[in-house]
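Marked as duplicate of an earlier ticket. Keeping the data here for the record.
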Amino acid sequence: MAQQVIHPMVKLQRHVRSLVDSKIVKPTDSISKIALLYGSEWSYWKKELLDFGFATQDPICDLLEVENWDDD
């Protein structure tokens, strides 16, 4: 039985969706707002987001709309 590996960005996306569902952040808030929640891990996630073409001023809803996190 092969175990499927989940892309790190899918994990981030799921966590951010949970934050939105819990009303901790709003979909219209900028991605930079989640930086406060990630603390020292934020530099890693910021780099990943920038590599995928996101800017920290982009709304969280843009991050949640991604359906496929290919590294290509």
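See parent ticket for discussion. The longest helix spans residues 8-21.
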